[in-house]
Amino acid sequence: MPTQNEYHVPRSYLKGQNLLVVLAEDGGYPQKVQDNKLRPIVDSVNPEANLKCANGKKIVAIDFASYGDTIGICGSFEEGKCSSSVKSLVENQCLGKVECSIPLSQVNQNTNCGSDVTKTLSIQAKCGH
After folding, report:
1. 51: β partners
2. In Å, how far from its chain's centre is CA 50?
3. What does the pLDDT look like over 44-94, one tens digit per residue?
4. pLDDT (0 to 100) of residue 114
5. Can you tell me the mean pLDDT for 26-54?
6. Neighbouring C-alpha atoms within 13 Å toward the C-beta of 57
7. Which residue blocks in 30-124 are alpha helix, DSSP H?
8. Torsions phi, psi for 28 (to 5 deg)
9. Which of 44, 47, 64, 94 is deepest in the core (most CB within 10 A)?
10. Three-state SS for 14?
11. Which ranges of the chain does DSSP label H, i.e. alpha helix?
């Protein structure tokens, strides 16, 4: 059974000349990934982050949640030079739930980032029983 069947790629990544590399576990078929199946997860009318656990699990921990110029990848996120923690907001809205949404309008967007810096909402959550 695969550990992940959906990949969420930020819209900003899809706009550039970026290379998407999909690493599959033993028995996976990365050659079957098709570009036409990629879709941004941010709705331009009402941007929000959507978290959902599989197999009836619930969100048991928020390991990282930040808005701004976060650096790193899942498992090793760090706040950038102009990021602000939104961990308590995400914990309040998501802990103990199978799925939740964090509207960007509820995130404190007062960072010291300039308008030329691309800001993202980065969240790392754990699912469990």
Report:
1. 100
2. 8
3. 445 788 899 988 899 999 999 988 888 888 788 888 888 888 899 999 999
4. 77
5. 58
6. 13
7. 87-94
8. -80, 165
9. 94
10. helix
11. 11-15, 87-94
Total length of the chain? 129
Main-chain dihedrals φ then ψ at residue 40, nearest 5 degrees: -65, 150
CATH number of 43-128: 2.60.120
Residue 2 sits at the vertex; the CA angle it makes with 11 and 18, to the nearest 5 degrees, is: 25
User: CA-CA distance, 30 to 22, in Å (whole number)?
Assistant: 6
Question: What phi and psi values does residue 37 have, to the nearest 5 degrees?
Answer: -90, -10
Largest CA distance in the chain: 46
Backbone angles phi and psi of 113, in degrees to 5: -75, 140
Count of helices and strands (H, E) across the chain: 2, 5
Q: How far apart, in whole angstroms, are the C-alpha atoms of residue 17 and residue 40? A: 16
Residue 19, both tokens: 């290379």
120, 65 in Cβ contact below 8 A? Answer: no
Sign of CA dihedral 30, 5, 19, 126: negative
The residue behind tokens 């197999």 is 55
